[in-house]
Design a protein that fits this description.
By secondary structure, the protein is α+β, with helices and mostly antiparallel strands. The protein has helices at about 45-55, 75-84; strands at about 20-25, 30-35, 60-65. A hairpin with a 2-residue loop joins strand 1 (about 20-25) and strand 2 (about 30-35).
Amino acid sequence: SMVVPQGDQWIYETKFDGYRVLAYINKDDVRLITRNNQDWSNKFPVIVTELKKLNLPFTVLDGEVVVLDNKNISNFQSLQNVLT
C-alpha cells in the first residue's frame, strides 16, 4: 500500500473512482449533467434533494459521484449497480 507523505509541504487529493457530474443549481431547480451532456438527475434523487436544500442562486458545481465502502474507498462497481 502507498504511504502518504507527511508534513506541511505536502498536499494531496484522494482519487475517487466514480462519474464526473456538473450540478446546475438555481434555487429549487437542480440538474445533474454528465460530461456527455446527459441529464442524470433522476438517477441520483438524494443528491438533487440535498442540493435543493441549499437554496443557492444560479450555481454550477463540478464533482465526482461515488459510492464509498466501509473503509471510505470508492467502489465503482457499487456505483454502477446503483445505476442499473
